Amino acid sequence: MLADADGGLFFGPANSTFAPMVDDLFDLIYWISAFFFVLIVGVMVYFVLKYYRRPGHGPQPSPTHNNTLEIAWSVLPSFLLVVFFVMGFTNYMSMRTPPDDAYEIHVQAKKWSWLFVYPNGAESSDLHIPVGRPVRFILESEDVLHNMFVPAFRTKMDCVPGRYNEIWVQAVNTTGTGVNPDDHKPHDLFCAEYCGRDHSNMHAFVYVYETGDFDAWLEKASNLYEGNTMVQVGEILYKRKGCISCHSIDGTKKAGPSFKDSFGTAHKFTDGTEAVMDENYIRESIRDPRAKVVAGYQPVMPVFPSSRLSDKDITAIAEFIKSLK
Q1: Alpha helix segments (H runs only) across the chain
Q2: Residue closest to 32 by CA, chosen among 77, 69, 86, 85
């Protein structure tokens, strides 16, 4: 099935088991609020028209207290609040209590990119999940407060530095057919907590596969160097490791210098020195990004030790940067 479930009057496509509960509660609160708004404003307009001041009609004595009326407008809305609370709490507990057999994906947020790590060691910069299976997300942040928000799932949870958060989802529709993401119409994934300069660009896609297609994609993603050239691997790592969030490939300026036409050219640094970008320069910039900071930029790039990027990975990234010249 394609992900085209109706999201109702106010929301986009709904593609999770508890999305209808969220939409129903919102609709209930909205229409009850609209009813009372129309009722109160209507009565107010009626009284204004009926009792406006005119010749021969002076102020009339009026009661100062009515126990029945005051009890009614205090107690009856309280029943509605109880209904809202029960529905909201029930939905909240369902969204916060993943099944024991849920598939686990680690979500690493950082300025300004996402990294999704799967149980077999595969990684991706976009989220890939199977349809009809509970998926538990273990959320963390490497720097500042972020928030993973998938409108189609009606899920939203903070990624907090120094601790783990969790949320889960079970998709009910696929976003396309086959293993190739290009054959899918994915959902959007946003950061919903302001996290700095490129917050608005901290965007990813969510692909929902049939079980067999997901397993095939997962196997392919875990064997990054199989069937791909070094340039292709470098491009994947450029996106997956977050380079894309700070370094453009089209010449536009971001938090870091663009990679376009950068290999083999001289770069001036904040200390007044300069050097030509070659393989050693790229390696040093990844392992010790504060050793040479390009003039006009701040030293905000994190360190990538060998546990996060192997020497082979750095070689692939260098080949990708070369290809942009």
Answers
A1: 19-50, 67-96, 211-222, 230-240, 243-246, 279-287, 311-323
A2: 77
Give the integer Cα–Cα distance in Å for 142 and 119: 20
Give the integer Cα–Cα distance in Å for 1 and 177.
Answer: 9
For the domain 1-48+67-223, what is the CATH code?
2.60.40.420
How far apart (Å, rounded) are the C-alpha atoms in residues 200 and 185? Answer: 21
- Averaged pLDDT for residues 171-190: 92
Tokens read off for 309: 């990027």
**For residue 212, with 0-12 CB atoms within 10 Å meaning exposed, 13-18 middle and 19 or more buried, which class applies?**
exposed
Average pLDDT over residues 188-193: 95
| CATH architecture designation of domain 230-323 | Orthogonal Bundle (1.10)
Mean pLDDT of 261-273: 89
The model's pTM is: 0.75
Sheet-wide strand order for 165-169: 123-124, 113-117, 103-110, 135-141, 165-169
What is the predicted pLDDT for the residue at 3?
46
| Averaged pLDDT, 43-50 | 92
- Partnered with residue 184 across adjacent β-strands are 176
Number of H helices, E strands in the chain: 7, 12
For the segment 126-173, what is each residue's pLDDT rounded down to a tens digit? 999 999 999 999 999 988 999 999 999 999 999 999 999 999 999 999
Collapsing DSSP to helix, strand or coil, 18 comes out as coil
Q: Kindly list the domain boundaries of the chain, sorted by start residue.
A: 1-48+67-223, 230-323
Residue ranges with strand state E in 111-164:
113-117, 123-124, 127-130, 135-141, 146-150, 155-159
| Higher-scoring residue by pLDDT: 262, 224 | 262
